[in-house]
Amino acid sequence: MQSKAKVLLAEDDTSLAFVIKDNLEEEGYEVVWSANGEAAMQQFLKGGIDICLLDVMMPVKDGFTLAKKIRQKSDVVPILFITAKSLEQDKLDGFKTGADDYITKPFSMKELLLRMEVFLRRTKKMHSEEVMEYKVGKLRFSYTNLRLYNGEEEHSLTQREADLLKFFCTHANKVLRREEILLKVWGKDDYFLGRSMDVFITRLRKHFKAEPAVILETIHGIGFRLNVL
What we know:
- The protein is an alpha/beta fold and about 230 residues long.
- The protein is about 45% helix and about 25% strand.
- The strands form 3 sheets. Strands 2-1-3-4-5 form a 5-stranded parallel β-sheet, with helices on both faces. A 4-stranded antiparallel β-sheet has the order 6-7-8-9, covered by helices on one side. The protein has a 3-stranded antiparallel β-sheet with strand order 10-12-11.
- Strand 11 and strand 12 (about 225-229) form a beta hairpin.
- The radius of gyration is 18 Å and the shape is globular.
- The termini are far apart.
- The mean pLDDT is about 85.
C-alpha cells in the first residue's frame, strides 16, 4: 500500500520522536527520523521528502539552520516547527527561515495531523497538471511554477508568497480583512502568523515596485487591498 506522504522528522527527544513516528505510521505516512539537524539534512538530500517536521532545539544543527538549508534546496516542501518555545521572537525567526507553520509542545496528534494535511493538500494542488496563471498589471504570475515575470525578468517566489499573491489576485481591488487572509492562506488566525504575514506583504511590495499600476494598499485597522489599475 502506498504511503500518504514521506515525512522527515527531526527530533532529538527519542521518546517524543517514537510517539510521533508511531502515530504517523499508523495513519499511513512513511516517516524518516533523525535525532539531529545534520543527520536530518542528509536524509532530506536523499530525496522524496513531502513534508518536514523539525524541532527547534537540536544538537549539531538546530531547527532554524536546518530549515534555511532545506529552503535552499526547495521552496515547495512544507516545513512545520515542533517547538517547546513559545516566545514571539522564536516564532518569527522560524517564519523568516521559510517555515510554513509551528506547533507548540505539548500538542495532540490530531492537531498535528490536521496541520500536516492542510499543507500536503496545498502542495498536491500545486503539483497538479492544472496551469494557474494570473495577470497583475503588466506582470505575469505563474502560481504553478512559483514565478513572477516582468517582461524578460523572472523572480522566484516561495510557496507562501505564491499562496498569498494568488489569494490577492483572485480578490483584486477588494478590501480583505487580516483575519480572512490568515484563515484562507495560513489555515488559522493567529497573532504570530499575522506578524509573519506582514513580512510576506513587504516582500510582495518589493516585487510590485516594477509595476506602478499595482499597489498593495494597507487599509488601517482592517486589512489590505490589491489595487490593479
